[in-house]
Write a structure and sequence with these properties.
With 171 residues, this protein is mostly helical. It contains seven helices and two strands; from the N terminus they run ααααααββα. A two-stranded antiparallel ribbon has the order 1-2.
Length: 171
């Protein structure tokens, strides 16, 4: 499925930022491509830089990476629930609380990169089994109506958005 094929439940304007950064991509090729190129990008950042933030009160590179991983997990879970027909409204999550509790700054670069790979592989396994009907199923999360497909595209766009921030502000 391509972003242009989202027939309903377009992303909320806040989340549209994440789909717009992708262009009109196919979901599964985008997930697979990011699994190849994002870890490579992360490996080229020096170990010393992982504890760097570009301003006071901003996350370090390690915390940004952990945020990407945590957010992907949350969105995977939402997609799983909605794909199985669960109509329970799901609460949002506070990214700042997640980052504080993550202890990302104590982790090695290799452990963060490895965790990203595992989580993305899990997303690929989950989403590759969804057919068009399942991709169009929906549910409520963070007081917004989401399709399964939109969650997949936001996973990809969120990662790309933060990669761009890392390039522009941290490196």
């Amino acid at each position: 499925m391509k972003i242009s094929e989202l027939q309903f439940l377009q992303p909320d304007p806040f989340y549209k930022t994440y789909t717009d950064v992708l262009g009109d991509v196919e979901l599964m090729p985008c997930m697979r491509k990011q699994l190849e190129n994002f870890p490579e990008f992360l490996e080229h950042i020096s170990d010393e830089k992982y504890s760097h933030s570009y301003a006071d009160e901003k996350w370090t590179i390690a915390e940004v990476i952990q945020h990407i991983i945590d957010t992907e997990r949350v969105f995977q879970y939402r997609a799983l629930r909605f794909s199985r027909g669960d109509t329970t409204s799901l609460a949002g999550f506070d990214q700042d609380i997640f980052v504080l509790g993550s202890k990302a700054s104590t982790r090695s670069k290799s452990s963060l990169v490895n965790e990203y790979r595992i989580v993305r592989q899990s997303s690929i396994v989950l989403f590759q089994e969804f057919d068009q009907k399942i991709l169009q199923q929906s549910g409520m999360a963070s007081k917004l109506n989401w399709s399964v497909a939109t969650l997949g595209f936001v996973i990809c766009g969120h990662q790309k958005h933060h990669r761009n921030i890392l390039r522009e502000r941290y490196l």
